[in-house]
């Protein structure tokens, strides 16, 4: 009995120390094997059965008390397990789809590159077609600009068109006639600009002086004392020389007013281009510079200088003679009796 009591004590101490079921089972087996008395074994067996029954009753009571929570927990666990399983399946499917897409893109890479290059080529062809369409309209627009004397716009348009025809569009055979026509116009364009420049340098400026003189003469004819002829005042007249005088005293290395004025001159298509002679001549010079004909312009001005100055003297002499004759006629008419 003492041995059985010690075995039960060891069993209980083992239960209290360890909650491992396997350890508990080994302890019970050891206790039963060390006991020689059948009664002690039966007692131990009864105690074990009673303990198991008590555990079952306690478990049943706990299940009854917490049935709702237990059911919810089981369902929640089942739902979580299903979601995890579905997620794993979906991830596996996504990985397979990504691998499939990677293979397809790898196979289509060359085709996509070819289509991309074709798209760039088509875009370039469309740009060339637009440029060709615009160039075809250049002769008509050029004629309109020349008729309205907007020479800077005409020069820009002509130079740009010729550069395109002799550059990117050089291989277009259908534009050969247009290329020859515009090239010929570009070669002769500077002659028109030089003639306009001479007209404003020598003719238009002196016509303004003559017009002012006629106005003075008409004013003097209204005065009773016809012998007093007013002198012609040319100090306030806007002449080409006065347009350039401001740059005569500029120091070397400094930007002169003449250069600044020529750079800032712009052509207004809404206004009369010849309204301001100085601006108009600046436009002509810019056009000649774009045509790269400045040396030819300087040579033409030098060659025609003596002839133009002689024409100025001739015209001035004729105007002075005509004004004097007209004044004499007016005086003779005033002195005649009624």
From TrEMBL:
Residues 45-97 form a coiled coil. Residues 46-144 form the Exocyst complex component Sec8 N-terminal domain. GO terms for cellular component: exocyst; growth cone membrane; synapse. Pfam families: Sec8_C, Sec8_N. One of its GO terms (biological process) is vesicle tethering involved in exocytosis. Keywords: Coiled coil, Exocytosis, Protein transport, Transport. Residues 273-323 form the Exocyst complex component Sec8 middle helical bundle domain. Signal peptide: none annotated. InterPro entries: Sec8/EXOC4 (IPR039682), Sec8_exocyst_N (IPR007191), Sec8_M (IPR048630). Residues 1-21 are annotated as: Disordered. The keyword Protein transport applies. Component of the exocyst complex involved in the docking of exocytic vesicles with fusion sites on the plasma membrane. Belongs to the SEC8 family. This is Exocyst complex component Sec8. The gene is Exoc4.
